[in-house]
From TrEMBL:
Residues 318-443 form the GGDEF domain. This is Diguanylate cyclase. Residues 5-75 form the PAS domain. SMART domains: GAF, GGDEF, PAS. Pfam families: GAF (PF01590), GGDEF (PF00990), PAS_3 (PF08447). InterPro entries: DGC-Regulatory_Protein, GAF, GAF-like_dom_sf, GGDEF_dom, Nucleotide_cyclase, PAS, PAS-like_dom_sf, PAS_fold_3.
Length: 443
């Protein structure tokens, strides 16, 4: 049997799983095999007589042109990789083998889709990077910064929103990236009916529409013209949602796919595991340095802060003040109203002390009903007297305990550095002695 190879040749080309491109010296596609539809979503008739550059990812355009020039100069390529844009807007990673036919003035290339391989590489790299970020991060907040860098690499054209959910308060805590790395958190209520609320409530991934006004929230309405450009996945732990990891793309026509969802869910799963561990570590660190009842700095951390403040004041010729406080008649209230009422009294007094001091000051519970306040950067006796008067006034305001109104005053002793002592022991002793003098005057 005689075989007509001339007729068979195009059939064989179109049976190949890889796509065959033939491009002229001006970048025009003169032939493309049928596998192009599987590769880029376009039929061969749609791509023939169009410019090959129209399908290349914009970020890869310059190096692709450089590679094409090399091929046309006679240097064959067998391992060139770049990104193309699929008809549905997604990115396709392609590995090329290309040669130049000088006689026909044509570039002949075979393209293989390696997107799945690159996804596997990205997944492995994401796991490594998150593990690395978890190891390097001292706090949950710094961990978020590390995760943000991972997401930027995986989804370079998308914005990230990472939110943790407090079910008791109905609040979302979002890293404040506008003020720089590790700067703090923004707390805001979780609005029902939004896409992020649905992700957290259902504990399931969701593709939705980006809200152009509110970052990360999502409209959950795919009838919008830019629908499906918001993707959120839950941060799950023990069947409860800790929050959500969200990416959204402001570019019109963006469509997130199942592969994007799977990759983002993988990152979210790793993050949830690390978050739980970091949260437990932070809780242990907090318990080691704070009073279990009031949440104030405990005696041990207060001594460390005082020593640090004294060293700083000594170097910079600064001044500081130490206040020692004792609640008057606390024992009577504790004995007559019960320990629970006494605990509530201590908690309320701790909050009041925090409210009337600066963020740079340190408030501590030393034990029982005794508190200390370290005032840094003071400007003499007058500023200390003003602070003491403010504290006394706020602490003496009526308080409701178990439905009863109580008036609780406090005795306050002060010590100034360097007038009343140069060491922590000297200042504490002076402030304690002055506190007992104040208590004798009020009894």
């Amino acid at each position: 049997m005689t075989i007509d190879f001339k007729a068979l040749y195009p059939k064989l080309i179109n049976l190949l799983l890889d796509t065959v491109f033939v491009v002229d010296e001006f970048g025009q596609i003169v032939f493309i095999s049928d596998a192009c539809e599987q590769l880029l979503g376009y039929s061969a008739s749609e791509m023939t007589d169009t410019r090959i550059l129209d399908y290349i990812h914009p970020d890869d355009l310059d190096r692709t042109l450089a590679a094409a020039r090399n091929v046309m100069s006679g240097q064959s390529h067998s391992d060139f990789e770049n990104r193309y844009l699929h008809k549905d807007g997604s990115i396709v990673h392609i590995l090329w083998s290309a040669r130049w036919s000088d006689q026909d003035r044509l570039r002949i290339a075979v393209a293989r889709n390696v997107t799945a391989l690159r996804r596997e590489d990205q997944t492995r790299n994401a796991l490594y990077r998150i593990s690395e970020a978890a190891h390097a991060a001292d706090t949950i907040r710094t961990l978020c910064d590390g995760v943000r860098e991972v997401i930027r690499e995986l989804f370079p054209e998308s914005d990230l929103c990472l939110a943790f959910y407090d079910a008791g308060r109905g609040m979302l805590s979002v890293p404040d990236w506008s003020a720089g790395p590790s700067s703090g958190w923004i707390d805001k209520p979780m609005e029902t009916g939004t896409a992020i609320a649905d992700v957290i409530s259902a504990g399931q991934a969701l593709v939705a529409s980006r809200d152009p006004v509110r970052h990360g929230v999502g409209l959950n309405d795919l009838t919008q013209p830019d629908g499906a450009n918001w993707l959120g996945v839950p941060l799950m732990s023990r069947d409860a949602a800790l929050g959500a990891l969200v990416i959204e793309n402001p570019s019109p026509g963006t469509r997130y796919r199942k592969a994007d969802q799977a990759l983002l869910q993988f990152v979210a799963t790793q993050l949830a595991t690390v978050f739980e561990r970091k949260r437990a570590e932070e809780r242990l660190r907090f318990m080691a340095h704070h009073d279990g009842l009031t949440g104030l700095t405990n005696r041990s951390l207060f001594y460390d802060r005082l020593e640090m403040a004294l060293r700083s004041a000594g170097r910079n010729e600064g001044r500081l003040a130490l206040l020692y406080l004792d609640l008057n008649d606390f024992k009577k209230i504790n004995d007559t109203e019960g320990h629970e009422a006494g605990d509530q009294l201590l908690i309320e007094m701790a909050r009041r002390l925090e409210d009337c001091t600066r963020d740079t000051d340190t408030v501590a519970r030393m034990g029982g009903d005794e508190f200390t306040v370290l005032l840094t950067d003071v400007h003499g006796h007058h500023s200390v007297e003003t602070a003491v008067a403010k504290i006394s006034e706020l602490m003496s305001l009526p308080m409701n305990l178990e439905g009863k109104a109580f008036h609780v005053s406090c005795s306050i002793g002060t010590a100034l550095y360097p007038e009343d002592g140069l060491t922590a022991r000297e200042l504490l002793s002076k402030a304690d002695a002055n506190m007992y003098l104040s208590k004798r005057h009020t009894t």
